[in-house]
């Protein structure tokens, strides 16, 4: 869904930006242009960003299962 009509920024792009490390509206403003024109998108963009930040799980360790026939 398009969140920022003025700059054609979707909720998917905002989630991808969060995955790449953006964590604030200032980041979204600077990197994507969210809220740089009319500003009507700011509240929804913030909501999308925070929901995605809250829903992420931190990866602290990479675990792999051994391939078949390989013993550790």
Structural commentary:
By secondary structure, this protein is mostly helical. It has a single domain (2-55), classed as Arc Repressor Mutant, subunit A, CATH 1.10.10.1100. 43% of the residues lie in helices and 7% in strands. It contains three helices and two strands; from the N terminus they run E-E-H-H-H. It has a two-stranded antiparallel ribbon with strand order 1-2. Helix 1 (11-19) packs across helix 3. The protein starts with a strand and ends in a 17-residue tail after the last helix. The model has no long low-confidence stretch (mean pLDDT 87).
List the helices and strands and how they pair.
Layout: E1 2-4, E2 9-10, H1 11-19, H2 25-32, H3 42-55
Antiparallel strand pairs: 1-2
Helix pairs in contact: 1-3
What's this model, at a glance?
This protein has helices spanning 11-19, 25-32, 42-55; strands at residues 2-4, 9-10. The protein is mostly helical.
CATH level 1 class label: Mainly Alpha
Number of domains: 1
Query: Major beta sheet, specifics?
Result: 2 strands, antiparallel
Distance between the termini: 47 Å
Give the overall average pLDDT: 87
CATH topology: Arc Repressor Mutant, subunit A
Question: What structural category characterises the helix and strand content?
Answer: mainly alpha
Spans where pLDDT lies below 50 across 5 or more residues: none
Number of strands: 2
Q: In percent terms, what proportion of residues is strand?
A: 5-15%
- SS field, number of helical segments: 3
CATH architecture: Orthogonal Bundle
Strand order of the largest sheet: 1-2
Radius of gyration, CA atoms, in whole angstroms: 17 Å
Name the helicity range: 40-55%
- Secondary-structure element series: EEHHH
Shape: elongated
Supply the CATH superfamily name: BFD-like [2Fe-2S]-binding domain
């Amino acid at each position: 869904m398009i969140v920022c009509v003025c700059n054609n920024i979707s909720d998917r792009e905002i989630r991808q930006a969060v995955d790449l490390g953006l964590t604030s509206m200032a980041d979204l403003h600077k990197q994507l242009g969210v809220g740089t024109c009319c500003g009507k998108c700011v509240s929804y963009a913030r909501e999308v960003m925070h929901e995605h930040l809250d829903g992420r799980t931190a990866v602290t360790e990479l675990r792999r299962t051994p391939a078949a026939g390989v013993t550790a």
